[in-house]
Design brief:
alpha/beta, Spo0b-associated Gtp-binding Protein, Chain: A, Rossmann fold, GMP Synthetase, Chain A, domain 3, 5-stranded mixed sheet, 18 strands, 19% strand, hydrolase, nucleotide-binding, GTPase Obg, cytoplasm
């Protein structure tokens, strides 16, 4: 059964970007002709478009989960991955898009407005795009970034020129059906209308829309009945038409008391900042059901009091169509006056998209206390995207990330923030955790190592000049000590160098003394 939905929560998941490809061109007589890995394709965005042909959010109420296609991965021979097709979601004109915390993102009050509600992921670069004169054969590629995933709230506020307000069963739906081609549900019991009904009325040269707001009762602004759910639809209207039932059989009710209660509820409803309060807008009064003799007498009785309050009063009957022509022309005059006043107002300020300032930092470092010491959190669009693009199973890709962060100035800011070697560094709000080791130099392009590895990440680090000098002096000192020990043994007669090396044997005859004898 068709119904009306004016609030719905969308669960969105934009497409992820495709991964870049790591490939080396191989052909006859050219076994290693250079990198030829293609780039990954971008995912598909999810876009909201205000459409005049869409009148309800019912489709999103029944299917709130929407996912756009992912981008394809890159391939060898410089073949790029396919791009995910964007998803377009039409919404009624007057839809307000809010975040889960209630923050208004955009008010789609004009037909054709487009809003990217879920941004897709970006495709990763292949190793062919990462190659340069210094890095001729990259052994890694960048990963595709994930698309935005989360919830948004859609709230529909009907855009109409005239709002019909009144008690339940006052004849508002019958009035819409009588003056327009709309066919709302009509019955002889309260709260027949469960959603606003729109009708288009042509009065002379003026064409305008009327909205039948569901019946209001006392306490509607506090949540009683259906008023709180649908009072928001009155915000967009230029003028109000109070439809009063002159033939009600309920005890304690009459047109004057009904009007006072409705006025109290309209006054208690807070409109958004910048909009005209409901009771300050043009208002007319229609005394309905005068086809009933008792209702006609009651209408003649209350008319003077209503006119004394400053209202323009019309006696109408939706059954016999008495007084409807005069009422439609009066409503057309109010609409024309409202449009003329709106045209005379200054134009709304345009949305200006300003480029980022040249001196604006790409990241910030937040120092957070922890049980194991300070945690240094790096927050910024660039470093967070770079981390998402890094394949942490590839040492060369990790080295490339370190070079990018150092070039961006992350290490210098960490030094200024008080970070030391071994400090805990977190990139992103829910990102990767690193034990920071400062980089001495950015030499990933000049490093000679197998593809896919970075020698800076291995345990065997290259010795510094001072360490090599210290090792050399230690070796020279050891040689000098060995030479001195040999001289002491020689002087002690333990060996001589006349005819080679000879070791003295205890108890052996002295050859020199034997020769002298």
């Amino acid at each position: 059964m068709a119904t009306f939905v004016d609030q719905v929560t969308l669960h969105l998941k934009a497409g992820h970007g495709g991964n870049g490809c790591v490939s080396v061109k191989r052909e006859k007589f050219k076994p290693l002709a250079g990198p030829d890995g293609g780039n990954g394709g971008d995912g598909g965005d999810i876009v909201l478009v205000s459409d005049t042909q869409t009148t309800t959010l019912l489709g999103y109420h029944r299917a709130p989960h929407r996912t756009s296609p992912h981008g394809g991965p890159g391939m060898g021979d410089h073949r790029a991955g396919y791009h995910g097709e964007g998803m377009v979601l039409p919404v009624p004109v007057g839809t307000v898009v809010k975040s889960t915390d209630g923050t208004e993102l955009i008010d789609m009050v004009e037909p054709g407005m487009r809003f990217v509600v879920a941004l897709a992921g970006q495709g990763g670069l292949g190793n062919a795009s990462l190659a340069s004169t210094k890095r001729k054969a990259p052994g890694f590629a960048l990963l595709g970034t994930p698309g935005w995933e989360g919830d948004v709230l859609l709230e529909l506020k009907v855009v109409a020129d005239i709002a019909l307000v009144g008690y339940p069963s006052a004849g508002k739906s019958s009035l819409v059906a009588a003056i327009s081609a709309a066919k709302p549900k009509i019955a002889d019991y309260p709260f027949t209308t469960l959603h606003p009904n729109l009708g288009v009325v042509e009065s002379g040269d003026t064409r305008y829309t009327v909205a039948d707001v569901p019946g209001l009762i006392e306490g509607a602004s506090e949540g009683k009945g259906l008023g709180l759910e649908f009072l928001r639809h009155v915000e967009r209207c230029t003028a109000l038409l109070h439809v009063l039932d002159c033939a009600t059989l309920e005890p304690g009710r009459d047109p004057i008391s009904d009007l006072d209660i409705i006025l109290g509820e309209l006054a208690a409803y807070p409109v958004p900042e910048g909009q005209l309060p409901l009771l300050e807008r043009p208002q007319l009064v229609a005394l309905n059901k005068i086809d009933v003799p008792e209702a006609r007498e009651l209408a003649e009785l209350v008319r003077p009091e209503l006119e004394a309050r400053g209202y323009r009063v019309f006696d109408i009957s939706t059954v016999s169509h008495e007084g409807l022509r005069q009422l439609s022309f009066a409503l057309g005059e109010l609409v024309a006056q409202g449009r003329a006043a709106k045209a005379a107002e200054p134009e709304k300020p345009r949305i200006v998209i300003r480029p980022r300032a040249v001196n604006e930092s790409d990241f910030v470092i937040k120092v957070e206390g922890g049980s194991g010491g300070n945690i240094y959190r790096v927050v910024g669009q660039k470093p967070e995207r770079w981390v998402a693009q890094t394949d942490f199973t590839n040492d060369e890709a990790i080295g490339y990330l370190a070079d990018r962060l150092a070039k961006l100035g992350v290490e210098n800011e960490l030094f200024k923030s008080g970070a030391v070697a071994g400090s805990t560094v977190v990139i992103g709000r829910d990102g990767h955790v690193f034990d920071w080791e400062p980089t001495l130099s950015s030499t990933a392009e000049l490093a000679t190592a197998p593809r896919g590895s970075d020698p800076r990440l291995s345990e065997a680090q290259r010795s510094t000049h001072s360490r090599r000098r210290e090792t050399y002096l230690e070796r020279m000192d050891a040689k000098t000590a060995a030479r001195d020990e040999m001289m002491r043994e020689r002087n002690a007669g333990m060996w001589n160098d006349d005819e080679g090396f000879e070791v003295e044997r205890p108890g052996a005859p002295d050859d020199t003394a034997a020769k002298e004898d």
